[in-house]
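Colleagues,

For the teaching module next term, I've prepared a clean inverse folding example: a structure given as tokens, and then the sequence designed for it. I'd like students to try predicting residues themselves before seeing the answer, so please don't circulate the second half yet.
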């Protein structure tokens, strides 16, 4: 039997941009992607901590070290610059592996989206 579990999470990152004139997706600083084990084009859920909106999109790689978190396309209408969000992805694992599974959970520095050193 397979179960769906949390794979990756960026907890309370800050929206730095919202760009309606784009096809879609969320652009994420490559340092944050690496820390959370996210890959380009991976499906993610976005939970807006500021206004309660919840939606799905996919990841695009942003400039390394930039702190960028940019919602693109229609998703940009569900956020505004300065909102805090949670970005989460999930994976299917064998039920027998549930106790050994450890998700990648990252808590960046508030407002800057930089990693703690």
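(Answer key — instructors only)
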């Amino acid at each position: 039997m397979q179960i769906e579990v949390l794979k990756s999470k960026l907890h309370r990152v800050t929206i730095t941009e919202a760009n309606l004139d784009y096809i879609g997706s969320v652009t994420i600083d490559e340092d944050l992607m690496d820390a959370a084990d996210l890959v380009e084009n991976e499906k993610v859920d976005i939970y807006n901590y500021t206004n309660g909106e919840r939606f799905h999109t996919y990841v695009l790689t942003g400039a390394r070290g930039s702190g960028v978190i940019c919602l693109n396309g229609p998703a940009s209408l569900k956020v505004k610059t300065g909102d805090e969000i949670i970005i989460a992805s999930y994976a299917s694992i064998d039920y027998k592996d549930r106790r050994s599974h450890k998700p990648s959970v990252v808590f960046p520095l508030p407002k800057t989206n930089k990693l703690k050193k």
